[in-house]
Structure formats: structure tokens, C-alpha cells
Amino acid sequence: DAGVIQSPRHEVTEMGQEVTLRCKPISGHDYLFWYRQTMMRGLELLIYFNNNVPIDDSGMPEDRFSAKMPNASFSTLKIQPSEPRDSAVYFCASSRDRGRGYGYTFGSGTRLTVV
Amino acid sequence: GENVEQHPSTLSVQEGDSAVIKCTYSDSASNYFPWYKQELGKRPQLIIDIRSNVGEKKDQRIAVTLNKTAKHFSLHITETQPEDSAVYFCAPLMDSSYKLIFGSGTRLLVRP
């Protein structure tokens, strides 16, 4: 089991550019979550999917953020246009059985820096 | 929505001493209570969890206790070691909403 795989590990981009973060969940996990972590705001849930369908996107900060899950093995989080305040570590996590008793497995994260 | 508070925000203990971190939540419908550990520059990892029908669970040096009436649960680490130094997050889950809401974290420092 390779775990949850995120790419890239680090991304530095200029303000106004489009950024795409990628995630491959653990095979067999039917829930996928995108979190953002900053010193000021901690770990914030942005959006989660169940069986590839977005269930709750109330944490998505604004229209510049969008997420997709075209199939059970791949999800993307896109920011367009990016702004310096989007700088953070973005984690993807997956789980099965609603996470109860198994918890979430997090990927290694993508550290995004917008200059 | 769920309101989650952790105390203390930072904790410094001598190696070998015990550490206790408390998490208070607001939603009485919460029924699953995990603790995550995040080392510097790493991902959060589940270290122990408890369900609402159990009052205490232990795994070697770590334990979690739950008080549903008072709506709080605690992480207990005994015989602390330097490798226990990390940020610890509680994340109670309400079954119907199915999303972990993470507390603000407790930074634990174990002094050798």
C-alpha cells in the first residue's frame, strides 16, 4: 500500500498563475478530503468527496478554488488565479467506512508558495 | 457547527513525565474521537481513537478517555520520550456530517 500520494511536494508560483494540486487516494477508500494548513488558521477542511461526488464544499474559500474527482483514483484542487494568501500546505486525505475506527490517512502534502 | 477547543496550546514536560491534553467539543451528536500527531514538516497521523460507547482506550504509553456528559476527551501520554515531541490534534466527528473538525493543536515538547 503506497498510501495517499500527492504531487507536487513543493510548488512556487507567481501571483495570478494557475496552480493544480493532485492526489491519489488509497485504493478502496471511498472518501477523499482536501485540507489546508496554515499557522494562523490551523487545519481547515476545504471539500470532501464520497464515491467521487462532492459532498460538502463549504470550506472552499472562494470561487478561485475548485476541486474535481473524475474517478476513484484521482482528484485535483485548482486555484486560479493564485494569490499570496493562498500560501499554505495542502493535504489530501482518504478514508473508508466513514473514517470511524480507521481514521483518515493523509498524504505528505503540497507546500504552496505564491510570490 | 462543531466548536472544538484544545488545552493547553503548548506543553513542556521532562522526559519520563506524563502529559495530558484536553479537547472540548460542542456537538453532543459527536460519536467518534480521534487524536492525531503531526511531527514537524510531516503529515498528521492517527495515533489513537475512541468511540462514544467506550470510556477509555489504551495503547502502550498512550490512552484516551472520554466524558460524553461533559463533552470532552483527553489524550494521556505516560513515560514521555523526546520522540513524542510534536503537535497533537483532536478531531471529533459527528456521524451525520462526516467530517473531522480539527482542534487548534497542542505543541508538546519533551525535554531530555
Give an overview of the whole structure.
The complex is a heterodimer of chains A (115) and B (112). Chain A has 115 residues and is mostly beta strands. Helix content of chain A is 0%, strand content 54%. In chain A, the strands form 2 sheets. In chain A, strands 2, 4, 5, 6, 9, 10 and 11 form a 7-stranded mixed beta sheet that branches. In chain A, strand 4 and strand 5 form a beta hairpin. Chain B contains no helices and 11 strands. In chain B, strands 2, 4, 5, 9, 10 and 11 form a 6-stranded mixed beta sheet that branches. Chain B is globular and about 45 Å long. The model of chain B has no long low-confidence stretch (mean pLDDT 92). Chain A binds chain B through residues 31, 33, 35, 42-43, 45, 48, 50, 55-56, 91, 98-101, 103-109, and chain B through 31-32, 34, 36, 42-46, 49, 51, 89, 93, 95, 97-105.
Short description:
The complex is a heterodimer of chains A (115) and B (112). Chain A has 115 residues and is mainly β.
The total count of strands of chain B amounts to 11
Main β-sheet of chain B: number of strands, strand sense, barrel status? 6 strands, mixed
Strand content of chain A: over 45%
Number of strands of chain A: 11
Mean pLDDT of chain A: 93
Strand content of chain B: over 45%
Rg from alpha-carbon coordinates of chain A? 13 Å
Helical segment tally of chain B? 0
Report the end-to-end length of chain B measured between terminal Cα atoms: 40 Å
Oligomer: heterodimer
Order of helices and strands of chain A: EEEEEEEEEEE
Main β sheet profile of chain A? 7 strands, mixed
